[in-house]
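Obj: model holo form, ligand = 6-O-phosphono-beta-D-glucopyranose.
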Amino acid sequence: MTPVIEAEVEQKLKRPALPEGDPCTLVIFGASGDLTRRKLIPALYDLCGAGCMNARFEVVGTGRTPMTDEQFRESMHEAAKSSKDARNFSEEKWAKFAKRLRYIVGDPASSGFYSDLRSFLEEMQRNGSSPNLLFYVSTPASFAGEIVSGLQSAALNQREQGWSRIILEKPFGRDLGSARALNESVLKVFDEANVYRIDHYLGKETVQNILVFRFANSIFEPVWNRNYVEYVEITAAETLGVERRAAFYEETGALRDMVANHLLQLTALTAMEPPVAFDADSVREQKVQVFRSIRPMSVEEVAAHTVRGQYGPGRIGDTDVPGYRQEPGVKPDSLAETFAAVRLQVDNWRWAGVPFYVRTGKRLATNVTEIKVHFKRTPQALFAGSDTGKFGPNVVSLRIQPDEGISVAFGAKRPGTHMSTVPVKANFSYADAFGGNTPVAYETLILDAMRGDATLFTRRDEVESEWKIITPIEEAWAQLPAPGFPNYAAGSEGPADAVRLLEPDGHRWMSMLRQEPNDAD
Ligand code: BG6
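Output (holo structure tokens):
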């Protein structure tokens, strides 16, 4: 390739063109909540700044806190300005965006509110707003049922002209029974095609790239199975504690908050068969097959194949931090888990006998989300006489965040007369290749919902099959002896039992901190 053409390709790679969303009014339930401030408004601001919003795109915030449009705009201004997700924040762009924001006070639990909302939206429409309605339920999950029936009572779930869609935030229910009940009430009101159950991990560029890596390249897929893979580990570690979410977290815990959705989705994308097409149903069909292959565990299996943890006081960087039980709003004898590790067995033709270990936790040593596929050692230790025996087997690392990228670890000969091999790494970095200017997950997902593309959202049967895996674990934990919490110090890599979880198989987690190819050795 000549340098000129290379430069052109590079420019194209660095400027991903985002499509424009349909005209619509986005109605946010829970507009004064944490998610709206931290994620939704910065994402919408960015999409507007990138020219992806139709001129007839507007936002209506709703919530119980009385506010004028101006006060709502002011509070969102603060949120966007201080958010790292709102890239290149400028007052000029904000002023343009703010004109699109409106607010209506109301209690989502009161049936009277929905007729007020309807009148408000009709008035907007008379003044030229789009008839298309996109509802975003960002309230605690327990309100979702009421909101959906409220929308039906005001006939906001159907439009004579245009469309009406609903985005539901996770957690979608808290077990199989409640997820089924919620699905039933939602699907009485909206068709499945208009229901967008969000799992924001699916909107992350690098998560989508798992499918491209696997199915757009012919070199990895032939070895992506039990004949070559020894085990898979998936880690989602955070240094953050529970922040201002103690009430939510006390009820939820790490298993429901992270494993039941984000980590199972990463497992499914790593393990699934190729879909017949890259469209919503074909992709989701294959993910459901993976969930169905993960057999629900008995109480004995849960005792042997899962670990829960809760952080005690410790140090994150240079700061002393309190233990979970000392956080405001947490019970002093709380048994909520802030760490969970599970050994999953994907019992199908491709993966029989290959364990998938997943772990997640708050207040861990670092922030990292990564999938590591460990390949089997070579059948013959040809270089065992040199120091080579030390390097670990080949590992493909799919790094979701931070430093998004993919690396392949392998052994190489150290230069010199002596036969000595060392582990090296071939590395692809998103930031180097694309300038690091990729849209954040919520931008991708909101835009997709506005355009009617549900590929990156979860389907009813998908959510229910996730709960079929998780609910038996929750139930077994309730029956098993209470764990001795706290069992890991803030700033560590989690409880010692998580290490022991892999020992019967002769496997080890790679360190969260060091990312060298032979970390495990
Ligand atoms: C959310 C969880 O779904 O994901 C949070 O409720 C968690 O507890 C967050 O912190 C992690 O998301 P991200 O995008 O920061 O990895």
